[in-house]
Amino acid sequence: MEIKDLEQYSGIYDFKDQLKRLIYERSARSFDAGDLARDALTSPEMVEQRQAYIRSQFINGIGGLPSTEDSVHAEVVGTLHFDGYRIEKIVFDSRPGTKVSSNLYIPDDVDSPCGAVLFLCGHFEQAKHHEEYQTVCQYLVRAGLVVLAIDPIGQGERLSYYEPGIDDPVIRWGTTEHDYVGCQCLPIGDCLARYFVHDAMRAVDYLCTRPEVDPARIGVTGNSGGGLQTSMMMMCDPRIAAAAPATFIMNRRTYMYAGGAQDAEQIWPGFTAVGLDHEDLLLAMTPKPVLVLAVKYDFFPIEGTRETVARTRRFWEMYDKGDHLEYVEDTSTHKYTKQLARAAAEFFSKHLLGRAVSPSDESIRTVEPSLLWCTKSGQLQKEYQARTVHHENVDRVITREKERAARSNEERRSLALDWLRERVFATRTKCELNPRLDMQKGLIDNLAVYNAIWWSQPGIFNHAYLFRDVRYEAERLPVTIAVWDGGTYGIREHIDWIRSTCDAGRTVMVLDVSGSGLLTPHTLNQRDPLEFYEILHKLTCDLYWLGDSLAALRTFDVLRAIDVLEELPDLDTSSICLYGYGRHGMYTLLASALDDRIGDLDWNKSIASIGDWVKSKYYNASDISSLIIPGMLHYFDLADLREWGRE
């Protein structure tokens, strides 16, 4: 036989959907528990307790919020005058050194503090100055509202990866940038959402300083990614008097089954695990006015939107405010349509100005986007050398390092291993291994090879090929378990190492951990399953929602591979070694920290330090999420595990 023959499995079980099925079943149980918890709310007092719970769980889950102690330093860098309103171009500091570019729309006839709306942008590269978003802001300002539109991280004038002398950013704008820096937030115990929320809250702080604005009458709206940000503000900022999330509200169940991935700031670790869902986003605003805006042909499932609005209406009715939850649905694909913009203008003018105003379509005139820039170049990085989330992450890693260093070695080790053990074992159940063997697989030169599968946990098979030199075929041999990128798909690259290890009188088990090698799931879009927004990215993010991670699950797989050795033929389990190579080799290090059955650990060309990776401005992003256990840097870096393993 040839090595390529090992890359095709013709056995007795279909592995391709097992990881997805496991994650979906776990998620479904959490969705059901959340429904039951919300169904049990029968009074305003219970609703208010739930609101406090939602806020604390969300904020804690994203790593807390940065300080708001510093004053918002704002600079008006230009003004444009139009018929009936003006636009001030404003740069303000969200955090010290972090600049936010924004446009403030002010009606001409404002002579006393009035209602205002914070407009939060979705995933258009141009952000606040995109034609669609200009249009919405004009509907709102022509209804008599002050409107502040801000550029989000990684869009508009806030691209983070511009370098001197390079016209285009090194890392693409929008979702690519968000995921790139957002992955680096997670090991710290943070989520990119903390910075999106903080920017929006600081924008409200700025609105409160304006003489044209009544701080008690501030609303928020946005669609898509802006609808997400609106929803986060509904949970986090009690100053919001009215909200209109657009083309985002749905529920986690319908979107999960739709098979779509989400942007980094849209993934909130542990949120699903504690039974929270989009119903809670709306419930968090009860009984304040909320207008849910939707489109019939959205990729966000409209059935989820309708169900969520219908199920939450009763919370407003508990306060005799049933009319404060409104719903408008347009016939369109994913966008903030003019019909939705008019509905938002009527809604906010009614609740924030005391009179419903419906601006005419004829009054809307967008302008050349560059006219709305707050900078000459169109980028804050070029003119202000502004701080970015990367700078925040570096500071946060250093803080984590100092916190760990302040503990004694014994305390650090105890806390770290207890925490890691909890992450690896808490959500998983050991079951009977029940291995299946194919002992007739064949020979590759002088190597005998056979196939084994076993139950790692209920619903999940793991898989391996076992190699031994034919000279030792009838002997009990010690075992080396090999874990590398691609699992059994990587045998060709490592065949020389396999031969030399077997020649030394050992059996080599080449392990497929969940989602790798022959266990790789079906793709979403017929692309490389490791690509951004492909199946393994999506499933890893679904695990984050559950307070879990692919890295922890795969570490469990390695430990179960050690368990199964006792049930396989002709193996001497008194000498078990692990061989880790490449990024996935990290799982062997994590496993060795938890299991004293492991003898030697040979760890090659793996990532040396999670902290150093987070500090790196540029890195290889391929499959990076498979290495992350959110919050790990609170307790250890990889060098700590290596040191403890040598003690």
Structural features, described:
The structure is a single chain. This protein has helices spanning 18-39, 44-61, 131-142, 175-185, 193-209, 225-236, 252-258, 278-283, 302-317, 338-353, 380-384, 389-405, 409-425, 491-503, 535-545, 550-564, 586-594, 610-615, 638-646; strands at 74-82, 85-95, 98-107, 114-120, 146-150, 213-223, 240-246, 290-295, 325-330, 436-444, 447-457, 460-469, 477-484, 507-512, 571-581, 598-604. It is α/β, with parallel strands linked by helices and 647 residues long. The strands form two sheets. The protein has a nine-stranded mixed sheet, sandwiched between helices. Strands 10-11-12-14-13-15-16 form a seven-stranded mixed sheet, with helices on both faces. Strand 11 and strand 12 (460-469) form a beta hairpin. Helix 1 runs parallel beside helix 15. The mean pLDDT is 95.
Q: Percent of residues in beta strands?
A: 15-25%
Radius of gyration: 27 Å
Derived structural class? alpha/beta
Q: For the residues shown, what is the average pLDDT?
A: 95
Terminal CA distance reads: 44 Å
How many individual helices? 19
Walk across the major sheet and give the strand order: 1-2-3-5-4-6-7-8-9
How would a crystallographer describe the biggest sheet?
9 strands, mixed
